[in-house]
Known about the structure:
The protein has helices spanning 31-36, 45-61, 69-83, 92-106, 112-127, 131-153; strands at residues 16-17, 28-29. It is mostly helical. The mean pLDDT is 78.
Amino acid sequence: ALADLGLDVPADRVQLERPANPEHGDWSTNVVMANAWSTDPAAMDGVAALFGESRRLCEQSLAAGDPLWEIVVNTCLAAGYAIWYTPHEPLSEQFWGFALDIQRRELPPDHPNIGATVSLLTGVLNNLGRGGEAEQLIRESIDGSVGDFREVAD
């Protein structure tokens, strides 16, 4: 199935973890990490297609307000972290961008998680030489952080 998506990952490097309780459906895999440190530019070619299809299915299947969106956000954040500071770091923008889109729709605008995700995206955009976009996200992050500090002070 991975080869159909253009992912060339040796089967002996892929792990699939079954959930402790099958009703939870929290399967996990290390597919992204299996190629994250490869210096081959094509090592992660299929990840964008896999992510795009996953995003499409989530948007098609989950309604606004569905508590499963939190799982989608956490999965996207984890995927971005998995390739952060690797040769394939630019892919983390897709993962973290989708997480931010969901957070902005599902959370109150001053929620601290939005500020944290904006900060992650700022770093990636800066590393990619997209300073103007990074500056806008920095401003958003600062605005979110001010709300965080007010909550702590109260």
